[in-house]
Amino acid sequence: MPGKLFPVGGGAPITLAKREMVVGRAESTDIHIFDPAVSSRHCMLKFNGVNWVVVDLHSKNGTKVNEEPVTQQRQLRSGDMISVARKHRYRIEYNPAQEKERFDRMDSEEINVIHGHHLSNAMGPETTVLPAHNADDDHWVG
User: Residue 38: phi, psi to the nearest 5?
Assistant: First the structure.
């Protein structure tokens, strides 16, 4: 199961779908909080290969973990409480080993996709094998 943020007080859980997710008021952020107290790009959640961490992005109203201010970067444990701009609170839940495996798998899948073409060791039905290029076969058509 992917890592998730659970809003304290109710609401749908938020899946931590990408290795880095920006939280903020701007529409371009991954997790939108439409509140003037939240900075446009408030904080970032990122998986460092071992754990999720939160980085405050110089927000005006701050980011806290378990009521302690985040000054730069803070490691997150499953069950920690993240506060954004003092009033938006989330509980993070994740399994470090499962997250590492999930992101390693996603990374290996990205490597196998080149210019929209999926490459597979199994050479599945969607794979087209092109013959080697022979310069002697080239002809100028004018």
Answer: -90, 130
**Residue carrying the six token digits 């529409």:** 27
Cβ neighbours, 10 Å, residue 103: 15
Number of Cβ within 10 Å of residue 44's Cβ equals 20
Higher-confidence position of 106 and 121? 106
Q: Of 25, 27, 30, which Cα lies nearest the Cα of 14?
A: 30
Could you give the CA distance from residue 100 to residue 52 in angstroms, rounded to a whole number? 10
- If you count them, how many residues does the chain have? 142
- This prediction has a pTM of 0.75
Place of tokens 């996603």: 106
pLDDT value for 61:
96
Contact status, residue 27 vs residue 34, Cβ threshold 8 Å: no
Q: Percent of the chain, pLDDT > 90?
A: 70
Residues in Cβ contact with 29 at an 8 Å cutoff, skipping those fewer than 6 apart: 22, 23, 40, 41, 42
Q: What local confidence, expressed as pLDDT, does residue 120 receive? A: 45
Judge whether 46 and 53 are in contact, CB under 8 Å. yes
